[in-house]
Amino acid sequence: xxxxxxxxxxxxxxxxxxxxxxxxxxxxxxxxxxxxxxxxxxxxxxxxxxxxxxxxxxxxxxxxxxxxxxxxxxxxxxxxxxxxxxxxxxxxxxxxxxxxxxxxxxxxxxxxxxxxxxxxxxxxxxxxxxxxxxxxxxxxxxxxxxxxxxxxxxxxxxxxxxxxxxxxxxxxxxxxxxxxxxxxxxxxxxxxxxxxxxxxxxxxxxxxxxxxxxxxxxxxxxxxxxxxxxxxxxxxxxxxxxxxxxxxxxxxxxxxxxxxxxxxxxxxxxxxxxxxxxxxxxxxxxxxxxxxxxxxxxxxxxxxxxxxxxxxxxxxxxxxxxxxxxxxxxxxxxxxxxxxxxxxxxxxxxxxxxxxxxxxxxxxxxxxxxxxxxxxxxxxxxxxxxxxxxxxxxxxxxxxxxxxxxxxxxxxxxxxxxxxxxxxxxxxxxxxxxxxxxxxxxxxxxxxxxxxxxxxxxxxxxxxxxxxxxxxxxxxxxxxxxxxxxxxxxxxxxxxxxxxxxxxxxxxxxxxxxxxxxxxxxxxxxxxxxxxxxxxxxxxxxxxxxxxxxxxxxxxxxxxxxxxxxxxxxxxxxxxxxxxxxxxxxxxxxxxxxxxxxxxxxxxxxxxxxxxxxxxxxxxxxxxxxxxxxxxxxxxxxxxxxxxxxxxxxxxxxxxxxxxxxxxxx
Length: 666
Description:
It is a single chain. By secondary structure, the chain is of the alpha+beta class. The protein has 13 helices and 41 strands. Strands 34-35-37-36-38-39-40-41 form an eight-stranded mixed beta sheet, sandwiched between helices. The longest helix has 18 residues, at about 650-665. This is Peptidase S9 prolyl oligopeptidase catalytic domain-containing protein.
């Protein structure tokens, strides 16, 4: 009998992460990205291949980051993105291996490759500054030039003229915009297709290879946050045509097999950022636009939360071979799956189950689907689904060796009545080594967003708490995705209201379990969950300890310092920040700081531009001045995504600090 051990924070270094499953045109192989953490405690990613029987081989081998695999139409070559030359560029490798060939040598790099239907060209994106000369763009930076650029950047005064001038992902924004290019493989020459002052998204080729469809920013995007446009570019006449009206949040357009329709994800922003995504169809013959399955109360996309994701994203609408239906990911009640949407309005659940699907692709005949998924006990793997016979085959087991060592806690689902009697879905993980008749401390976890959802996915943080003897309870209060439009919209204009009541009802429900010690409760959460942690401990003393992460404490200052602050007040609080300062104060935890008696650990990233560091500093200074038990931990060189893709050593330190604080005060 194998004696299993408890998971540790340091087990992060041993974990492997799959992403971007790309099935071959013939449907007999899947290329995917495998990310690991090397001996230097740095991320590295390689492209792997796995066949239908689960036999896998490593296709690329560097200590850099290879990603974005994209099969040629014949299935004999794979284009991918790699930073092995210094900048992210597009490379090409034979399906049978060998030496990879660098295809692009652009000054600002290249990414998001897409093959033309005839396999002779590759469309891609590359950033361009208005001051860049064309000849300069065609020559990749040398290491000396990169170092010089970084040195000059560190000394250059930042002159701000734009309303939105920073991004949590990118830092302070420069004037570069993502532009569309096409590489002719025979000549090796890249041709710039777009040339204006707006960002473009990854394009899609028309079936005849004569046009591209893509989404892009609208005019004055900072004054129209969230809005976008869908364009068709004719590569013969260079005509650019808008195909949807203003006021859409639109993305990921794809062509129907016969080239007469465009499908895209989007909505009309009726509920701002809380509006459910739909699949829209544009009939190119008459310009009509219709949404599929408008009567269904669920949104398109993967809104599941996890702290072990490694990049990649859900693809755009995937057309069936006959062009009569579309495949897309849907999030419902704590899981995401792949549904089929008929143009006749029908909906069929194709790949479902208690798990999160965070990437998929289809073969050229649209008979097989390769997908990446996670469950509460599986960090991530790749599987294959056969649409003809309905069979599903698990192709990888990348963490088998590590998982065989570990004793993990399996979540148990429950529902309870929240505010106004609304049904709320929740889960509980019992502590490792649980024994009937004993009592245990319980930690309430609160997710961020708020328009995301806890799900049937793997959470390292939750498993670590369970390994240290804590029960972990978590739920999806109103404002979460996965339960319909009314539910996801209900938090807007009511932060700290009925969402707070939902969370307290969750704790009340948990206290019915005889193993929960009501005198040893803790609470933690990040982003919106950090705001809610601050709100909770400023409105109740029932928790013995709290950890607030990347949080908001003051909505008034948030407006002027967050990369989304200036429109967030309107979107989420339904107020105009210039006039409604009193309302923003009313819903700010800092207003009630004197009520906070709970020992509080504040975890924040130094370079968080979503919920900037000053939010943590304000809260810390107030509590320290009041001589309350508080500690501020600032994580250097990190942004809002520290817990998901921050530096590995800092992710481990964060986990250990959370456990250490609860151990000390609970």
